[in-house]
Amino acid sequence: MSSAPTTGQPVSPKALQPTGQPRRIKIDIPEDGFTSIRDPRKKYWIGTIKACPYQNIDCGGHSFPRFVEDAEFGDGETIRTKRKGAFVFLDDTDLKRVCDAVANKMLRFMGPERPDGSRRGQILSRSGQVGRPYRPLKGDEPLGRYLYMIEVPADSEYVSLPKTPQTMVD
């Protein structure tokens, strides 16, 4: 709040000036915080299948998109190419975090099936939330049934990816 008078009188510019000095916020970075050796990273193809009620799901710190659009620019025009999923590079720690997060999520479908075959859904955590524990209902399904994660071999330039990828849960 300003220390300016509230009597409806004109306020002098000096009354609106801050009276304290700015304070610098300083943090300490641990010596080994950024120098520790990480596991080698591997390439994975991740995404959602058509039956998933969401086009994109964020889980374990990574985005599982149904489609991404690559754009190439040149000669005054943009060429856009749509492709399924996304490619990410994960080390063993990242992979475990994503898999644990997906294993903790359930998908609850709501309402009737739409004419195009899609349904609305809600993503729930099996571990629950504070004051709101997860209570399974008939029809709840593991989220992993609607997500795929496929390791791409490192020794090849081009990999023929399946048209319908297998999901993380059968």
Ordered list of secondary-structure elements with their pairings:
Elements: E1 42-48, E2 56-59, E3 62-65, E4 67-74, E5 77-84, E6 86-90, H1 92-103, E7 105-110, E8 120-125, E9 141-142, E10 147-152
Structural write-up:
The protein has one helix at residues 92-103; strands at 42-48, 56-59, 62-65, 67-74, 77-84, 86-90, 105-110, 120-125, 141-142, 147-152. It is mainly beta and 170 residues long. The protein has a domain at 38-104 and 144-152. The chain is extended and about 70 Å long.
How many H/I helices? 1
**What share of residues is helical?**
under 10%
Structural class: mainly beta
Q: Choose one word for the global shape.
A: extended
**Strand count, sense and closure of the main sheet?**
3 strands, antiparallel
Low-confidence stretches: none
Briefly, what is this?
The chain is mainly β and 170 residues long. It is built from one helix and ten strands; from the N terminus they run E-E-E-E-E-E-H-E-E-E-E.
List its traits.
1 helix, three-stranded antiparallel sheet, single chain, extended, 170 residues, mainly beta, 7% helix
